[in-house]
Amino acid sequence: MADKFEDTFSSKTNYTGKGLMKGISRRRILLSGVSATGVAATIVAGGVQANTQKPPEPKTTIDRNGKFTGKVVLITGATSGIGEETAYAFTREGAKVFFCGRRENLGKQVEEKIKGFGGEATYMRTDVRKEEDVKAFIEGCIQKYGRIDIAFNNAGIFMTPAEIHTIPLDNFIDILTTNTVGEFLCMKYEIPRMRRQGGGIIINMASVAGHVGFSTTAHYNASKHGIIGLTKAAAIENANYNIRINSISPLAVDTPQLRESFAFQGITYEQAVQGFVTKRIMTPHEIAQAVLFLASNQATSLTGMDLDVTGGQLAR
Prior knowledge:
This protein has helices spanning 3-10, 36-45, 81-92, 104-116, 131-145, 169-197, 218-238, 256-265, 269-273, 284-295; strands at 72-75, 96-101, 120-125, 150-153, 200-205, 243-250, 306-309. By secondary structure, the chain is an alpha/beta fold. Strand 5 (200-205), helix 7 (218-238) and strand 6 (243-250) form a beta-alpha-beta unit.
């Protein structure tokens, strides 16, 4: 992240570090109800529109001859944000999506929305911190569809910013268990299935925080660095089994989690983007399209890499 954004984080060093942004509901904090489109308009009005190509609008209809027609796609953490948008993107390209998340009401809403525009999707409540849940989730997909062609291990959390010496051990363990162990458990059960079926594609959600360090987010940094390491090791182990394994690293993406974090810290979007190379917040649709690229036949030579989708931030 940029220096100014880092300063905004590190200027608040009196956090207790107790829990995930206590007192703030992710469903309530949508920047006073502003949608992704509204946020984009606000950023344009403020003079910080990107100097890069404007992102395309998402498809609104199903392509029966789409790039992923007939493919089975498994997605974790798809009840909101990037995971939700990626579920929409895959189904609009003809895929069958089996997805999870801990919030059952939101999961059912996403499932019904996909079915409403003619897509095929199945929601299953799963907590990726629990091995028995992950195993049941993978087995549920196999029982429903018979295979897993593509897995997007996306589920993750962001904890209350705090300096290392103030982070409670249980918070540190929780974020690593959710973000890093959760993706490890997914691969643990996805890989044997993909080996038996003759191949597959796995995409893990990492972050710019997996490449650089930021003050007051050591627990998040550690979890995302670990994901990139896991991805590289798994890719080497499975290259000869026709399994491609990559990760993807965004910067700031307009999701409920980001809005919750900014609201907690009193950061505006305009303040955050001042030090970004691409001076705007990325959209979930942009990240979803990058995931679809890694899962496509245009990326057959890519394995063991982390895709930089930070808008040029890691080029510095």
